[in-house]
Design brief:
Layout (H helix, E strand, L loop, with lengths): L5 E4 L3 H12 L4 E4 L3 H9 L7 E3 L3 H6 L6 E4 L5 H10 L8 E4 L5 H13 L3 E8 L1 H7 L2 E6 L1 H14 L2 E2 L2 E2 L9 H29 L5 H11 L8 H11 L22 H12 L4 H14 L1 H10 L13 H33 L5 H7 L10 H11 L10 H23 L5 H13 L6 H12 L19
Parallel strand pairs: 1-2, 1-4, 2-3, 4-5, 5-6
Antiparallel strand pairs: 6-7, 8-9
Bound molecules: 6-phosphogluconic acid.
Length: 471
């Protein structure tokens, strides 16, 4: 039998769909799964009739692949990847290439790229975004590693990726762990936007007194606009309209309000803190998941801690909905702005030479944060690649100008009704801080110097100063 063009290890949902995608795009494939019965089930199921072979072990798997071998690992991030690398390495030959398509921590990928490249193998850390459907139909792919390794897979991933008007949603991201760094930040932006939409839903439900269909209608309207048309808005409308066949109630209202997290949002915030990048909207979304995990505490606190509560006679006007739209637009912009700022700072720190226009382009299709807004983001960074923050691009600055009052009013309404809006309120403070030339940190400096003699700088003369405040 002819050698296969492409190999995939790990037949989870993403792995299965990615190999079906590759084969559909003309790349004969071979698959390996630790549990062979899973391989058999796949070959007799969705892979039946396809140019996809199975392998009983890694030696068999490698032998069925043409040289240079291109092997995509879709396995759980962490030690499992190191284990597979150790097991398969004895069978690899010079120029063979391993690709990690999971959500690995980018410093783990840095290490692996260095290790494998030193043995004359190739190694790519590739963020893959789009979930199961995206993997099958075309994900956004963020491959990082050496340029030579990328070139060895370029034809393959360019076919597999989602396609938008200006090309495939894949590009060479940069060296080392840059691909996984970009995917991590993609997920941080995803966390932010998911939370922003959840806060809008909460306000419409608890303050505007909208029912599920009315809230879904607002999302449907948002999905028609340039500023808010996106995959996440689209699926939110679907989720809100989905009924439980058992009792015809809305499924969303039956779901326990405790959000899980697999780590990429945490890594985004940790990177931002290490690098000194400001990502308050993204952090607020992560903290909102932590707060949601305190379910039993919150049930006690609800009857213990009193304060402003939702007033049920709120007379929602069209202006209120317009203000909520303003709030969601600005918070979504802030989520992207903060994520892209983190990428900029990380690129400088790690010498990744990231291209923001290219990253915006490959996020326009296939990935979870795909949106029409990314056209404007791509345009902004194409016009000014050195843009220090998305907010000061002309079009985005205009969005702030026309929508900041609406955001402010919505945060005030939420506060008056005791409804938490961590992402919306963090966005308001982020934008107000960013557009304030003089913040009150002069007083913080005074306090630090007073108790700790930490010294301070002045606005009126060069140098470092200390005052004997208490003498
Ligand atoms: C994607 C998703 C994918 C996964 C997230 C979920 O881009 O396709 O982001 O990577 O669904 O990791 O992350 P949490 O479970 O942490 O929300």
């Amino acid at each position: 039998m002819a050698k296969a063009h492409f190999g995939l290890i790990g037949l989870g949902v993403m792995g299965e769909n990615l190999v079906l995608n590759a084969e559909r795009n003309g790349f004969s494939s071979v698959v390996y799964n630790r549990t062979f019965s899973k391989t058999e089930q796949f070959l007799s199921g969705s892979a039946a009739g396809r140019d996809i072979q199975g392998a009983v072990d890694l030696k068999d798997f490698v032998n069925k692949l043409e040289r240079p071998r291109r092997i995509l690992m879709m396995i759980k991030a962490g030690s499992a990847i190191d284990a597979v690398i150790e097991q398969i390495s004895p069978y690899l030959e010079e120029g063979d290439l391993l690709i990690d398509g999971g959500n690995s921590e980018f410093r783990d990928t840095e290490r692996r790229v260095a290790e494998l490249e030193s043995k004359s193998f190739g190694y790519i850390g590739m963020g893959v975004s789009g979930g199961a459907k995206g993997a099958l139909e075309g994900p956004s792919m963020m491959p990082g590693g050496t340029k030579a390794s990328y070139e060895a897979i370029e034809a393959l991933v360019s076919k597999m990726a989602a396609q938008v008007e200006d090309g495939p949603c894949v590009t060479y991201i940069g060296p080392g762990g840059s691909g996984h760094f970009v995917k991590t930040v993609h997920n941080g932006i995803e966390y932010g936007i998911e939370q922003i939409l959840a806060e809008a839903y909460d306000l419409m439900k608890r303050v505007f007194n909208f029912d599920s269909p009315e809230i879904a209608d607002v999302f449907a309207e948002w999905n028609k606009t340039e500023e808010l048309s996106s995959y996440l808005v689209e699926i939110t409308e679907v989720c809100l309209r989905t009924k439980d066949p058992e009792d015809n109630s809305y499924v969303v209202e039956k779901i326990l309000d405790k959000a899980g997290q697999k780590g990429t949002g945490l890594w985004t915030v940790m990177s931002a803190l290490e690098l000194g990048a400001s990502v308050p909207t993204i952090y607020a979304s992560l903290n909102a998941r932590v707060m949601s995990s305190l379910k039993s505490d919150r049930e006690i606190a609800e009857s213990t801690l009193s304060g402003p509560n939702t007033v049920f006679d709120f007379d929602c006007s069209q202006e209120d909905i317009s203000n909520l739209t303003d709030a969601v637009v600005l918070a979504s912009i802030a989520s992207y702005a903060q994520g892209l700022d983190l990428l900029r700072v990380g690129s400088d720190q790690y010498n990744y030479e990231l291209s923001m226009p290219h990253i915006a382009k490959i996020w326009k299709g296939g990935c979870i944060i795909r949106s029409r807004l990314l056209n404007r983001i791509q345009e902004a960074f194409t016009k000014n690649p050195g843009l220090s923050n998305l907010l000061i691009d002309t079009w985005f600055a205009e969005q702030v100008k026309i929508r900041l009052v609406g955001l402010s009013k919505i945060v005030a309404i939420a506060a008056a009704n005791g409804v938490p809006v961590p992402c919306l309120s963090s966005t308001l403070d982020y934008i107000n801080s960013y557009r304030t030339a003089r913040l009150p940190q002069n007083l913080v400096q005074a306090m630090r110097d007073c108790f700790g003699s930490h010294t301070y700088q002045r606005v009126d003369k060069e140098g470092t100063f200390h005052t004997h405040w208490l003498d």
